[in-house]
Specification:
There is one protein chain. This protein is α/β, with parallel strands linked by helices and about 230 residues long. It has a single domain, classed as 3-Layer(aba) Sandwich (Undecaprenyl pyrophosphate synthetase). It has helices at about 15-20, 25-45, 65-90, 105-115, 135-145, 155-160, 205-215; strands spanning about 5-10, 50-55, 90-95, 125-130, 170-175, 190-195. Helices cover about 45% and strands about 15% of the residues.
Length: about 230
Amino acid sequence: MIPPKHVAIIMDGNGRWGIKKKNSRNYGHKKGLVAVGNIINAAIEKKIEYLTLFIFSTENWRRPINEINYLFNLLNIYIDKEIKNLQKKKIKIKVIGNIKPFPKKLRSKIKNLEKITNSNKKIQINMALNYGSRQEIINSFKIISQKKLKFSEKNVEKYLYTRGIPDPDILIRTGKTNRISNFLIWQIIYSEIFFLNKMWPDFTKNDFFKIINSFLRIRRNFGGLNDRNN
């Protein structure tokens, strides 16, 4: 079995975990960031080339403003704290989504982070920020129409946020919820999907490794037949 190149994760359950532990959704988001660091290290250990993390969706604007501001502040702090470490580990950061509505200072930091890490080759972390898959596809259609190009799979993919990135081999969702939630709808048509009955802050390297091992046992035919079925 060919090892996975690209793993995508819906990191669900931070808020509910925080409420249960400390009666604070923000506490859950803070601890969820610790899990992010652990899983990035696990992905590097397994030689994953691309790791896509669903950090802030287009639907997350419906949350209370204090929670949104806390998430933005958490991202600010993370960039300041981790930028040297990301460089040291040769991690490339790429944003997928539309960060224009984000605070100016945060936008500047994100763009600078992308620029500084652009030549790194160890692993590419795709940060899905203000990301919604339907909006991504509509945006691609608009560009194709404006350019008066032929509507084809190749052209749609060319103008997605994920241009040049292989489709995920694996999609993981934590949080005890079995749905996709407007994430990478176009890209995951042949992804192996793993739903976990645990919240994101409880997701460990061992959980990640178990999923990788399970993936390696799957026979993937992409609509065709393998020798066993002939």
